[in-house]
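> call design_seq(struct)
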């Protein structure tokens, strides 16, 4: 049989039509590496409970793990093993039921009711891959939400709320600028309406002076500044343009994404996915989460803080608000010193003087400056901390005879602390006057970062472990049945060549699994469908080659017919696979979730099938029918 070069390249082999040995060595090396990096998928993970310290002086040690293991075994829960890592410890159990029971027991043991939380107890899946495979970077494929089980949420971001919050900040900045210039203005609660904000004045002259002060900050193309009159008062109106609105919305989405990722990271979830969906939605996948109630509560919880001074005697009535606090009414200045947006870290602690719950607050540099500037001249005056919680509201109505749920959110504010400023506050201070649960919750939310806009859950799905196992079983059954039928057909129809094609097809699946494991690509149920399609495309290439060889055998001797069959079928196979690869890459680029899972396996499968169906099978054919004077072939 004449020699050949790279796949589809006619000739170019060694003397007398021999294939250079390096090609066999390269093929053998690829198969060996593929086998090694595919092996970790034969080691299923153990169910485990992960324990980590939660912002306290407590640590996870071998002694602690030993005590916990004794307690679990005393409750009739067999422990497979333990593992100590940088992020904490793992306790391995035999099945999902033992995992749930162990989690509840450890939660009660490590975090008794009424005591601040010292440890985070989370469910996980612990790897059983041998250390020697881990040493060379061999890891099993990552299973997606539909196979591993877990929770899926879709959150709607309240873009109107994001714009209103941003315009409220801009309004406060305008008021600060006018105060510095000693320009009196008329303040109203409805100053912000949609994408506009308006400020009224007593006379047109004051309005014109105000416009001159702010026009450099609010100019086109982001803003349009206009002067008019309303209710007999001269005023100016600032309208935010569409491009600026889109920028505000994008900024809100990005800040919310960051805050959600921080929250989820603190839940101890392995391989979470937090991504933007369209213009105003965020999708969250939490694989391995069997109890989604805690995750949902953390995700759906939106809170912030406002720091305000108590009203002074000389404050104008328009700048004062009345708030209930401890069965009485206190008067606070409307102006915020700062908000929780400037908090970079928060930790639950205890007050050194009273022993009660407290939250240690650390501000960023700008927040520290603002706090010091506000408290330095007001020592002896009281400062209030306002806790703001956005609660989701679902209103059910009938539209065109169908039940429709309308989602919104309501901000509930309450004063949680009112204390006298003893000294100018730096960038680090503490908040007291909280209950234990309130302190824990507040520390968690502030530590995760403030959200730029309210959100509410519009879609929620829980995928149990049994459903994941069923998906895996059915998917693998589909692959096995399809693979088996293809093997039988190829062997019966193409005989020896069919056997060679079957070997190449098997090696293709091994390499495909190895590549996905090395890339840590996530395998989903649509991804399994992509593997099934890959099997069909891989055998399709061999069918084209073998059909061409049969045609060539009518007019050529076997050696030349085999050579011509591979050479002439190559371009057809290449065109078909490259076209499909382009479609798969487009799906991978613009798609997400199921589409991305399908596109990943299909893209990798196309490349590996080209390698095994053309290059690999040709080498195997040469081993069997590589003699130059072969007279008969079984095809």
């Amino acid at each position: 049989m004449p020699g050949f070069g790279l796949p589809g390249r006619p000739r170019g082999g060694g003397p007398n039509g021999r294939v250079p040995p390096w090609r066999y060595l390269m093929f053998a090396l690829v198969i060996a590496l593929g086998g090694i990096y595919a092996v970790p998928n034969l080691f299923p993970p153990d169910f485990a409970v992960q324990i980590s310290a939660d912002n306290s002086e407590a640590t996870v040690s071998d002694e602690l793990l030993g005590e916990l293991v004794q307690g679990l075994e005393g409750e009739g829960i067999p422990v497979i093993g333990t593992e100590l890592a940088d992020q904490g410890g793992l306790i391995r159990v035999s099945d999902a039921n033992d995992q749930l029971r162990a989690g509840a027991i450890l939660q009660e043991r490590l975090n008794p009711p009424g005591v601040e939380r010292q440890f985070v107890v989370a469910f996980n899946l612990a790897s059983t891959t041998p250390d020697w495979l881990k040493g060379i970077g061999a890891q099993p494929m990552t299973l997606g939400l539909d196979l591993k089980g877990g929770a899926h949420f879709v959150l709607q971001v309240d873009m109107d709320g994001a714009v209103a919050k941003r315009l409220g900040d801009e309004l406060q900045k305008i008021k600060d600028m006018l105060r510095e210039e000693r320009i009196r203005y008329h303040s109203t609660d409805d100053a912000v309406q949609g994408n506009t904000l308006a400020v009224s004045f007593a006379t047109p002259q004051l309005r014109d002076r105000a416009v001159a002060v702010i026009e450099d900050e609010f100019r086109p193309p982001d803003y349009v500044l206009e002067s008019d009159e309303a209710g007999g008062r001269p005023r100016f109106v600032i309208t935010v343009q569409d491009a600026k609105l889109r920028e505000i919305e994008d900024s809100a989405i990005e800040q919310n994404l960051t805050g959600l990722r921080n929250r989820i990271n603190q839940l101890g979830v392995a391989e979470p996915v937090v991504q933007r969906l369209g213009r105003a939605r965020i999708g969250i996948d939490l694989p391995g989460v069997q109890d989604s109630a805690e995750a949902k509560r953390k995700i759906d919880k939106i809170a912030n803080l406002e720091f305000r001074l108590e009203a002074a005697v000389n404050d104008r009535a328009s700048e004062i608000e009345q708030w209930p606090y401890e069965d009485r009414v206190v008067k606070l200045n409307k102006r915020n010193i700062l908000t929780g947006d400037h908090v970079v870290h928060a930790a639950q602690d205890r007050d050194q003087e009273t022993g009660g719950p407290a939250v240690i607050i650390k501000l960023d540099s700008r927040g520290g400056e603002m706090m010091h500037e506000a408290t330095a001249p007001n020592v002896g005056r009281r400062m209030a901390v306002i806790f703001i919680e956005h609660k989701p509201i679902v209103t059910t109505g009938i539209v065109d005879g169908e039940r429709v749920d309308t989602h919104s959110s309501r901000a509930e504010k309450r004063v949680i602390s009112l204390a006298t400023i003893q000294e100018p506050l730096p960038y680090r201070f503490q908040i007291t006057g909280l209950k234990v649960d309130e302190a824990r919750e507040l520390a968690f939310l502030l530590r995760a970062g403030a959200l730029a806009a309210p959100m509410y859950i519009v879609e929620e799905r829980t995928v149990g472990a049994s459903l994941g196992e069923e998906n895996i079983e059915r998917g693998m059954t589909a692959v096995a049945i399809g693979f088996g039928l293809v093997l039988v057909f190829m062997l019966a129809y193409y005989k020896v060549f069919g056997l060679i094609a079957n070997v190449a097809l098997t090696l293709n699946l091994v390499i495909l699994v190895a590549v996905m494991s090395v890339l840590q690509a996530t395998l989903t149920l649509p991804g399994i469908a992509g593997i099934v399609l890959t099997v069909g495309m891989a055998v399709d290439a061999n069918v084209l080659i073998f059909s061409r060889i049969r045609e060539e055998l009518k007019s050529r001797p076997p050696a030349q017919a085999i050579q011509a069959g591979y050479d002439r079928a190559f371009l057809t196979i290449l065109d078909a696979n490259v076209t499909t690869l382009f479609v798969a890459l487009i799906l991978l680029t613009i798609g997400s979730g199921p589409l991305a899972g399908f596109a990943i396996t299909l893209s990798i499968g196309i490349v590996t099938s080209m390698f095994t169906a053309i290059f690999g099978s040709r080498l195997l054919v040469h081993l069997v029918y590589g003699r130059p004077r072969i007279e008969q072939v079984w095809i």
